[in-house]
Structures are given as structure tokens and as C-alpha cells.
TrEMBL record:
It comes from Ephemerocybe angulata. This is Uncharacterized protein.
Length: 688
């Protein structure tokens, strides 16, 4: 069982699940499960951390579709995004109807010869459960949890039931449907895959998904069915799944709705996915009949025989049982075990006696097995067998070349680590400054050129990138400005497999030497100027400065701009002289638990936004980029040139999360003078 905690409550939960397998829960078991119903205590709520955004296991597909639709809209609103709608490509299919299931209501099929606009809209607006779980309209946003519905590449962990998160896509405009798009490629990051996946030019565990075309029977709003061929990316939002889909999963946090379960099997499947009672939440009350009552005799015997086989397997593993006991069938194995227990195994105390009578008698005759090779008959469609004349060839229609609607593989690229000439510190600066430059190429080219020759070389390199392979091109740009920096500051930045002083590196790149506690001051009234040491006092704000003893970057800046003291000549206020800069790098490695504000107001200089953070640990630098829309991407050049989307700052990702990255501590925080964000159409692109 998945439940391994040894507390009394967890032991009672295991007992309840064991009884539930036999549909034999008692009053104590039912009371224990009812204690986990939402609303019983304030902590039992889907709004609580841990339970929030966990996929809800339910019994009915219609409930799953409704939960997915509602929570998709909620997730987009909470992360400050707009849901993007991507439509399937549907074509009428002339295949034969599926064989009717006598247990289900007979289907009535549409006789239409083509898909009209009204019918197409109806097909798109129907939930996925009406079209064999292939959605007509897929509503997505960055960071949304999804579940893969098709075994596309098992070696890449792209398998049915694999959970993932959306990190980007490329989409095309839908011909003859203005304002509508269909997906070309969807990029997702796998969640807890069986093994790490690393594709060229993509971050770790990020894989592309392409459209599949499936022949399905889709239900129209008027309950008629259409046989169509639907092309769509095989994913669904993962805010809910059915008990059938949850089989085989182990969930740390388990949210279930067992009210509509058809039998105790479904209830057991839902509840047994969780690893702990304390992290299990039941959404609604349920009927006692689902948990207790009679079960079929054949099923009871099935359970009993499985328990017998478990005991036999354990004894065989421990060497207490002869290997000859194991036979091709379970009946033979159990029969030989019983015979052994009555004879040679009589004195083996650990071997129990199986006394239960079988409801279904085993076969009396000996079973003889023969191996034969069967030749499979090729299947043919009924209309081909009954055809009296050859089928007419279908006219092939060539559609116009689709127009690109967006290419939102929006993950910022980064350089690739140089193992011969260690480059992680240069990679971190290149990653951050490149995406800052991308936000306004003309503006930042002019600004970069004013800082240093290395920054000027960096801007020229960014402008010359052909964007055919941005990771390789950024790696070349990094090498270019690194060589310029070494030529400008010989001996300061050695080549080879050596570490780097990123503080000195940043100072030289930004062309500003930080003077430590030595500051320049001036009186606003008499203009008297002095140079002094600022012991336990505010320091100079410039392109590079060091933060000490501050709760946040904003507090450090505010303190630095306050009057330092009273002038000894005119009793006016004395202020520290600061150097205005469009880019400010704050050293925070020794600042303690300082909050990296997403926006910092620096007096009359203007509003600055957090553009990136560099982290250090285990002799290696990694970095984060924060876009103008507060989207956060992480980059580790050792893992390749791609970056990983982590969420939206201050919505899905709290400010406190910026303190560390993969066990490494924040060392440098880069702030850039914020420009006015131009409103753009979110339906066209999500990139910056």
C-alpha cells in the first residue's frame, strides 16, 4: 500500500482501505473518512495550500469537464493571464459507425454531407466527454497543468496519463475562421517523469507535442452524432481526472469526489491514490452503501486467492517453500501448497493453513498446454466487403499555406556552458542582459554602448543574431564580449577551468568601481563637498552597489536617499552623491533575508523593475530572468541553452521564492529603468 506513516490515524486509514476492498467498512471506518469531508474543519478546503490546483479525482466525465473548465478560468485569472482558445481541425469522415453497445442507448447519426458552420460551432463548444476525450476547443495559458492523453513517445515519457505544465506553443490562424487559431506545436514541461528528458534546444523535461488525427464519433448539441476526423493536440487540462485515469498514480495530496462513484471499486481507487489521511480531502458527503454491503462470491474468492498467492510468494522468497510448489495456474499452485502444508510443511509455523472453501470449484482434469502459431486475419471494412464496384477516388483538396498567428515558445534562450573555459558567470549575465535588450532593442543598444566596451560588444552581438539557432548564437555572443572584457582588463578574468569573481566581473561590465564604505557627500544649501567613510550608514547607489542590513531593496534605496547628517557649515542637509544608471546591480549575497522587490521607486530617477537574479552555490552560477509582465524563467547553462518557465511573480510565484534557485543563494539582483509597457493583444502572442 502507498500509506506508510505509522501514526494511529494513518493506521486506521490503512485499515479502512483494507476493509473497503472487501466492501466491509464498519462505523469507525466510515466516521474516519467523513472526518476528511471539505468544510468539516477550516483546514479542509480546496483553498488551502497543498490542496489548491491538485487534480480532483471524480467518477463522471461530465463532472471532470466542468471542473476543468471552471478551474482553467480561475487559474488564468489568478496568474494575470488570458485563456487562449485553440480549435480542432474537423473533417467529415465516411467510415462505418462503431458496433453498437447493447448496454448503451442507441445513437442517432447526422445525415449531413458536410460540416456546416452551425454544426462546427456546436462541435467546438461541446465538452471533451462528447468527443471521446479529444477536445474541440482547447483553452490554455502558460503554467497551466495538463495531462497527456496519447502514447506518443514512451522513450521521452510522452505517455498517456503523464502530467505536465504548459510552457509555450506555436499556433496558426484558422483559414476562413477570423480570430480563431489552431495549435501547431504545444511545449509542455513533464511533472515528475520516470526519468529526465533532455531534448536539443529545449530545457530539461520540456517536450513538444504535435497534432494527432483521430476518427471519432462526436455528439452535437442536439444529441445527433457525427463521424468526423479530428486533429488536435492530445492533452486536457489537469484540474480533474476520472477514477479510471487515476489508476496507478501515487499522489502526495489527494482531492476526491466519491459521491458519484458507481461501486466500492471506484471509491477504493480514488482514496487509495493518496499516501496519507492528513493530505486527503473528500469534496462531498457520500452514501454508506458505497462502503459496506455484500460482494459477489466469485470476487471474494478472487481476493482470497490473491492473498494466498501473496503468502506463497513471500515464503518462496524467504526460502521456506519448495520451488516445485509454483505451477502455471493459481489453482494448481494453491492446491499443491495445501498438500505440502499437510505433509512436509506441517512443522513450518510461518506457513498458514488455507481452510476456506472455494465458491467456484477448480477443474478436476489435468490441464495440458500447447503452443500454436495463429495467423491473424486482416480486418476489412464492411463497405469494402459488400462493394460491387470500385470506390471512386477522392479529390485531394490543397489548402492555402496557413499564416503564423504566434510563435510563443516564449522561453528566453541562453548560452551553453563552456566546459573548457568555465563560463557560468558570463552565461548568467548574458542570459539576463539579452532578455533586457530584447524588450527594447533600440533603447538598450544605445544604453549598453555607454557603459563599457564589453557591453557595447554585447549589444552588437545581440543585434547581429540571425535567430536561426538562438542558443548557439548567444553562446557565440558570450564568447565575443568575454574576449573584449579580458582584453580591456588583462589578468582580471583568467581563462580556463577556473572560478570567477562575479562582483568584479559585473563592475567591469557596467564600467563602475564600487568604493565600499567610502562615499562622496554634498550639502544641498552651501554645496560643500566631502569624502568620508560611511560606517553603518547608507552607501552609494550606482550601476553596482552592495546591500547590507536591509529588509528589502526598496528600504535600502530609501535609506540611501535620506539626509545623511546636518552640514557643519550651514546646518543644511548633507546627502550622499549617487550615480544615476539605467541598470543597477545590487549585491545581496550578504544582505540576509532581503526581499527582492519586483518594482523599486528611486526618487526622481524613476521606477525600476527587477530584470534578473544571479545565484551561486556548489561552485556554479545560475540565473533567473523576470520579464516586463513579471513572468519568471530559470536558466542553468550546464543543462543547455533553454530556460524553464516558473510562474508569474507575486501571483503564482511569491517574492520569497526568488531567494534561492535549486539550492543556490541569490548573489546579484539586476534592476532596469522601467519603460512604459505597450498594451498588446493577448490573443496574438504571449511573448515579450
Amino acid at each position: 500500500m502507498r500509506q506508510v506513516d505509522d501514526s494511529p490515524e494513518e493506521a486506521a486509514f490503512r485499515r479502512a482501505l483494507e476493509n473497503l476492498r472487501w466492501r466491509g467498512c464498519d462505523a469507525a471506518d466510515i466516521a474516519l473518512l467523513r472526518s476528511r469531508i471539505a468544510g468539516t474543519t477550516p483546514d479542509l478546503s480546496v483553498e488551502r495550500p497543498g490542496f489548491r490546483d491538485v487534480s480532483i479525482i471524480t467518477a463522471l466525465n461530465k463532472d471532470k469537464d466542468q471542473i476543468n473548465a471552471t478551474n482553467s478560468a480561475r487559474f488564468a485569472a489568478e496568474t494575470g493571464q488570458t485563456l487562449e482558445h485553440f480549435y480542432s481541425i474537423d473533417r467529415l469522415n465516411g467510415s462505418e459507425p462503431k458496433r453498437p453497445d447493447p448496454k448503451k442507448k442507441r445513437r442517432i447519426y447526422s445525415t449531413a454531407k458536410s460540416i456546416s458552420k452551425a454544426a462546427q460551432n456546436g462541435l467546438w463548444n461541446q465538452p471533451p466527454s462528447t468527443s471521446e476525450q479529444i477536445p474541440g476547443r482547447l483553452s490554455l495559458c502558460i503554467g497551466m497543468p495538463v495531462i497527456i492523453r496519447y502514447n506518443e513517445a514512451t522513450e521521452l515519457c510522452i505517455t498517456r496519463g503523464q502530467e505536465a505544465r504548459v510552457v509555450g506553443w506555436s499556433a496558426l490562424k484558422y483559414p476562413k475562421w477570423p480570430g480563431r487559431k489552431y495549435l501547431d506545436v504545444l511545449y509542455v514541461q513533464l511533472v515528475n517523469p520516470p526519468h529526465t528528458v533532455k531534448l536539443p534546444h529545449l530545457p530539461k523535461n520540456v517536450v513538444p507535442l504535435t497534432r494527432n488525427s483521430e476518427s471519432i464519433e462526436a455528439q452535437l448539441p442536439n444529441d445527433l452524432y457525427m463521424r468526423i476526423s479530428r486533429a488536435q493536440i492530445p492533452v486536457l487540462p489537469n484540474f480533474s481526472m476520472t477514477d479510471y485515469s487515476s489508476q496507478g498514480k501515487t499522489r502526495k495530496w489527494n482531492v476526491v469526489d466519491i459521491k458519484e462513484c458507481k461501486s466500492f471499486h471506484g471509491v477504493y481507487t480514488c482514496l487509495s491514490r493518496g499516501t496519507s489521511l492528513a493530505r486527503t480531502l473528500i469534496l462531498r458527503d457520500f452514501s454508506n452503501d458505497l462502503l459496506c454491503g455484500d460482494i459477489d462470491g466469485a470476487l471474494r474468492q478472487e481476493y482470497r486467492e490473491l492473498n494466498h498467492l501473496t503468502v506463497i510468494t513471500d515464503l518462496l522468497y524467504q526460502g521456506r517453500l519448495p520451488a516445485s510448489i509454483i505451477q502455471p495456474t493459481r489453482w494448481e499452485t494453491i492446491r499443491l501448497y495445501k498438500a505440502w502444508k499437510k505433509t512436509a510443511g506441517r512443522d513450518v509455523d510461518d506457513a498458514p493453513i488455507f481452510d476456506e472453501e472455494d465458491t467456484i470449484s477448480p477443474p478436476k482434469d489435468n490441464i495440458h498446454y500447447e503452443i500454436e502459431t495463429m495467423h491473424a486475419m486482416s480486418k476489412r471494412k464492411e463497405r469494402e466487403l459488400n462493394a460491387k464496384e470500385p470506390q471512386k477516388k477522392r479529390r485531394k483538396v490543397t489548402h492555402a499555406e496557413p499564416i503564423l498567428a504566434n510563435a510563443t515558445w516564449a522561453s528566453p534562450p541562453g548560452p551553453i556552458w563552456d566546459s573548457a573555459d568555465w563560463s557560468c558567470s558570463y552565461d548568467a549575465l548574458t542570459f539576463i542582459l539579452h532578455w533586457l535588450w530584447v524588450s527594447d532593442r533600440v533603447k538598450w543598444t544605445r544604453i549598453f554602448e555607454a557603459y563599457s566596451s564589453a557591453m557595447s560588444a554585447m549589444a552588437r552581438g545581440f543585434a547581429s543574431m540571425a535567430q536561426k539557432d538562438p542558443e548557439i548564437e548567444l553562446t557565440e555572443v558570450r564568447d565575443q564580449w568575454r574576449e573584449v572584457l579580458r582584453a580591456t582588463h588583462p589578468g582580471n578574468h583568467p581563462a580556463g577551468m577556473e572560478g570567477a569573481d562575479i562582483m568584479a566581473l559585473t563592475e567591469n561590465v557596467l564600467g563602475f568601481r564600487f568604493m565600499g564604505t567610502r562615499i562622496k557627500t554634498s550639502c544641498r544649501d552651501c554645496s560643500n563637498k566631502t569624502i568620508e567613510n560611511a560606517v553603518n550608514r547608507p552607501l552609494t547607489i550606482g550601476p553596482f552597489c552592495s546591500v547590507r542590513r536591509a529588509a528589502s531593496i526598496q528600504e535600502f534605496v530609501d535609506e540611501s536617499f535620506h539626509p545623511l547628517r546636518v552640514c557643519s557649515f550651514c546646518t543644511g542637509n548633507v546627502f550622499v552623491n549617487h550615480k544615476k544608471s539605467e541598470i543597477i546591480a545590487f549585491e545581496v549575497v550578504e544582505a540576509g533575508d532581503v526581499v527582492l522587490n519586483s518594482r523599486v521607486n528611486i526618487g526622481n530617477w524613476g521606477l525600476y523593475r527587477l530584470a534578473g537574479v544571479v545565484y551561486y552555490g556548489d561552485y556554479h552560477f545560475v540565473s533567473r530572468v523576470i520579464t516586463r509582465e513579471n513572468k519568471v524563467y530559470a536558466h542553468d547553462s550546464i543543462e543547455g541553452g533553454g530556460s524553464t518557465y516558473e510562474g508569474t511573480l507575486e501571483t503564482s510565484l511569491p517574492l520569497e521564492a526568488l531567494a534561492t534557485l535549486n539550492g543556490r543563494t541569490a548573489s546579484l539582483a539586476f534592476y532596469a529603468l522601467a519603460d512604459r509597457v505597450v498594451a498588446h493583444n493577448h490573443s496574438d502572442t504571449e511573448s515579450d
